[in-house]
Structures are given as structure tokens and as C-alpha cells.
Amino acid sequence: MFTQSFSVYYSPLNFLATKTQGVITAIRNKDEQIVKKLLAMGVHTGMPITLEQRFPAFVIRVGRTRIAIDKDIANSIKVRVTTRS
Amino acid sequence: MSSQLLYPSPIETAISRIESLLDDRLENQISRRSIALLLLQKDPTLRSQLRQEPYFPEIERIVSETQAGMSESLTFAIAESRHQLAMAIEQDVTIQPQQQRTFKHEWLHQLTVHPVTGIPILALVLYFGVYQFVGVFGGGTLVDGIEGFFESQINPVVNSIVAAIVPWQVVRDLLANDYGIITLGIRYAVAIVLPIVTTFFLMFSLLEDSGYLPRLSLLMDRLFKTIGLSGRSIIPLILGLGCGTMATLVTRTLESKRERIIATLLLALTIPCSAQLGVILGLLSQEPTALLVWATVMVAIFLGIGFLAGKMVPGNTACFYMEIPPLRLPRLKAILTKTYVRLKWYFGEILPLFIFASVLIWAGKLTGLFDLVVRRLEPVMLWLGLPKEAAPTFLYGFFRRDYGAAGMFDLHSSGILAGQQLVVAAVTLTLFIPCIAQLQFMFKERGIKNTLAIASFVILFAFSLGYMLNRLLTIMELSF
Amino acid sequence: MDCHDCHQSCQPKRKNTGWKLFGFGSKRSVKNNFTHSSQTTIALVGSPNVGKSLLFNLLTGTYVTVSNYPGTTVEVSKGNTVIAGKKVTFLDTPGMYSLIPITEEESVARDLIMNEAVNLVIHVVDAKHLGRMLNLTLQLIEAQLPLLLVVNMIDEAQKLGIWVDENQLAYQLGIPVVTMAAAQKVGLKKLIAKVADYVQSTPLSVTY
Q: Which of A3, B390, B467, C76 is the most buried (most CB within 10 A)?
């Protein structure tokens, strides 16, 4: 098997700047409940995501849904950045 | 049906294996396939329901086997399949715009959640919504009006009618006079509690329907993390400013047991309910320094005890996630309906207790039991630097928090309680044990052990703090 | 109906005494009692903020009772109305996102549809978030519960340029679908007609 190195910009949400847009590539948290809740609110892999605010809480927009999350949960959402503005 | 929801084949295999194990005795209304899926997602309720069954270990084995063969968690895989189909259906049945349009009232949303503008807006909402509308208008203007009407028009009439019809003094006292069902129980309910609670619920329903509450949670999350809670807890705590009993019930919306215990403790100890708040604001607002001392002490205790509780109550740190719905202009009818429903609940649960409390007080006085307790409380009052006439107020305060506050109102108008004593009494009464109804709901929600622990802590803390505050104010020579 | 008792006991108890009067045994299970009763119970479920309570209001006139069921719910509102000549009881449940509950509050709605005798479940979704809300619809279909889907807030969706094809959705899911704007009472008659269809088609009545 041969591997080719792709350079995909892939980052936990809490490392991104406000107004960054991207696509969710993974949702990982040791607490399965949190994953369940995020899934139920429409946060799935492949969905477009915008980081609207970082303080006092993270505010994200996934599809047409706006969700407030704390830093720990933001850390569990991995994003491939598509645009920066 | 054209869209069949099929899961990846290992999951489908597991589903049919589990389905064949389940017996007919399951009283559930839902299909076996659904039960199998819930078990694969480790649903706690269903697991505990089936734990005793002989086939349960077999199910456990299937679940862990299936999980072992998958790279991602079963829950995730199941949710993904479902999500794919749901999205495909949405694509198929809707016409979506090419460009996403912005939300309505977007600028207003930005103002409410941006820390620079959001915090001042929050302060304004609390000042006008809680202080001006509930405290000053509800607890001041309305209470004074209705209370005055009762004192001058209704009570004398009731007293004389009862005196005319009922020959026995004992029964007269049950119905009328100082502690009668009509003259005290109903008067407090209608004249003091009704206006305050109504104004509070109106304000709360307005905030709820406009979509402001989730934004409030968002703003408070950081602060609440330091006291072991998450932004989510602001909703029961704000509701606690209306009715602690209702708020104790609403702590269910919190995620973890730890959060629920901390919120219950803070509700029992520091959050004054609207009846109490209205009377206290009404009394202390004439003395701005007194009000400031009361508010500072309460906020400090809220944060301090919250911080300590956050350190001591076992469990993981609370996490915060909440959908932020668009801001909406609330519809008047919906607000009125919500207020009406809440008021109905409140009076359904609380009015009987008012009457019950009146009867208890009557019986207590009749048997001398009450005088005994009051006499026991009198030294405590003196220890707090309060007049001994304040003792019954504390005792009644247990029957209804607002009874206590309203009793204080009476003491103040007759000139017994003044200045520093008023502040000490207000602080101690606010901290003091929640009313009978709240205690009952604490039992129901948190269990006997937690409730007893919280209640004994609250009593001890309230009196010790009252004592310290009195000493401190004396030393500082603050005059009100 | 004034019910402040706990939900496990109050409804069946009342039914049982009724049956005893007519010479029937009271051994029937809770479920049987319900299917044989002459009244239809319909639960409104869905995530928070989709207009369930408003719809409940429209269907029942007002909040007839807000019962608080100790140990189970924050509040389940119950209201009666008559549809197609039959008494129908609507239950308004706390919001839920998925069949797997996370908070205690959410488990109320699930316990209600899983263990209580509900004849019809009306899943209310927001047309603006159809895709993600269909997750629960699919779970309810999997559970084989008698189901009706209400796609609410179509007016708001249309303002955003989203149009929902009601018939196509009904065909895809294999369940009845009604699009509505409950706040404007748009689609209410259609919904009541669909509920009436259901009430009439199910043999629920028992002759006294």
C-alpha cells in the first residue's frame, strides 16, 4: 500500500478565529452523551460550519442552526477550513 | 414507502440477532427493531429495564461484538445513517435557495450576544424586568394598593361578620383576626403574592418567548462554570426569582446530577422567590444603603457558596451546549396564556398550602406548641440583634417564605423593625430554609439524603451569617 | 379533567373503577384499558421551539390542565377536544431531539410514547430545519408508532426561500404529512381533517 501525503487543513474548532468557515470532518469527545446531543442538534460530519463568536461562549452556525457551546465541546468538533474572511 | 432506512450490514445483523432474543412480554409500544437499536446505542433506561432478563448477557455480547468490528462508535454510525437518509429526503422534497439568506433581526442578535453590548443589555433587562417591573411596580405599587384595600375594606368587614356569626373565639381566630384563614391566608395570597408572582411570570414568559433566555445562558456560561454550573442553569435560577418551588422542579432540565444538586442548593439558600423579593425590595428600597448591603451580601454568598459547592460536590464539570433560536417578537396572547398557566399551577399548588399554613398556625397557637417554639426562637432573635417580636416571622417563614417576608412587612409598618435590624432580618430570612412547598419538591427531586443535608446546612448558615452580619454592621457603624 | 396524581396510577385507576361498575374484571393491563377506551389519546412531540405548545393551544382551545407528574416531567399539558364526534385528549410533551434522552426532562416525552397508551403521535418539526428534524421522524417510524408529521412554520421557511413538497414527503416517509403555519392558523383545518380520518378509521369505540 502506498501513502500519499495530503495536506488538509484540519483543526479543532477552538483553534480557529471568529468568522472562519469550514466543513465538519469529525466529532470526537470521550463523553458519548455530548456526541449524541451534537448529532441530535444537526452537527454531523460533512456539514458546513461557521464560527461566529468565541467569547463568552463559542457560537457556531451549522446549516441554518445556531448553537452555543463551551470550549471543551468546541475542541471536539474538527473542521476543515474552507474560507477565511 | 420508498425510503427504507438501512444501517451498515454489521448493525443490521446485530439488530436481527437482538430482535430474535427479545420476548413478547415487553410491554413497550415500540417495535423490536427500535428496541434493538436503542440497545445498540446503550440506552440506559432500556438496559436497566432488561437487566434481569436471562438473555441480557447475550445482548451485551452482541453489542460489544458489533462495536468491536466497527471503527466508529455504534451511536455515531447509527446516527450517521439516519442523518444521510434524512438529508437525502430533505433534498428530495424541498426547494432550497442557492444563497443562504441572513437571519431576521440579525443585528439585534449580535447586540445581545456580544460581550461588550450583551452584558449591559443583560443588566438593563434585569433592572427593568426584575427590579422595576416586579419589585417596584408589582411588589410596591400593586401590593400597596391591594393590601391597603384589604386592610381598610375587607378585613374589618370579615372580622365583624365572623364576630357576629361565630360565638366561639377559637373559631373566630381560625377564620379572621390576626392569623385567620381569610384575613391572613387569603390576604397574603391575593394582596402580596398574586401581584408579585403575576408580574414576574409575565416578565419571564416575555423573555422566554422572545428567545432571550438562551442568549442569557450563553453570556453567563463562563461565570457559571466557576460555580460548578453551566450557562444552562441560569434558566432555573432566574425562574427561582419567581418561585423556588417551580424552579426546583425545573432543575431537571440540567444535564448532570451534580449540576442539579448545586442548583437546588443555591435555590434553597440564596435565591429569593418573587414574593420575598418583592417585599424585600419594597421595604429596603427606601434605604438605598440597606438595599446595597443586602444585594452585595446575597451576590457574595451566591458566588462563594457556589464556588465551594463546585469544588465539593462530586462529578464532572458541567458542559454547555444550547441551540440559539432566532429572536422573535413575542405574541401577546401566547405570553398571557403562559402566564395564566403558570399562575394556575402556582395557585393550585400554593393556595392550599396557604390555607393549610393558616390552620397550622391556628392549631399551633391553640395548643401552645407555637408559643413554645417562638419562645425558643426569641433568644436566637436577640442573638441576631433583632427584636423578639421577629420570632414568629421566622417560624411562619418556614410555612411560606413569603409569609416570613410579609410578616417582616407588618413588623416594619408597625415600627418594630428598623435600620440595621431590617437588613439583618432580610438577609437571614432570604437565606433561611425554603418554604414547605419547596422543601417538599426538594424531597421529591433530590431525595431525602440530599434534602436533609441541604436543609440543615441552610439553617445553620442562615443564622450564623445573620449573626456575623449583625456584628460586622455594628463594628462598621453603618447607619441606615 | 383534574389530574394531579402520578401518571402511572391515575388514568388506569379511573378506567378500572369504570369497568368494575359494568361487571368487567380489572385485571386488564394498562395498555388494554386504553385501546378499549372510547377516547383517543394523541401526543405532540418534537424538539424545543417548533411551536408544539402553540399548536396544542389551537387544537384544544386552551390549556385545560397542566398536570405535573411527580417523578416524570416538568410539565405535560393535557387538553380535551372533540374531533369527528369523538373525545380526543391531546398531550403536550417537553421537547425532545431523539429517542435517546439526555436530560430527565427529555425522558418524559419518550416514556410517554413508549409506555403510555398513546393512540397517535404527532411529530411537529420546523420546516426551516426539516433535514435534521427528520432524524426523530425516522426513529418514530422505525418504532412503528402510529405517526403523523406536521411540518410547521412554512411561512418562515418560505421567507427564507425554502419550499416543502408535502405530498412527496408523505410518499417518501409513508406517513401522513401536513404543512402548517400554526401561528397564522394556516393548515389547521387540514390537520384536524387528518386527525379526524385517523379517529374514524380506528375501531376504538366500546359501547356502554
A: B390
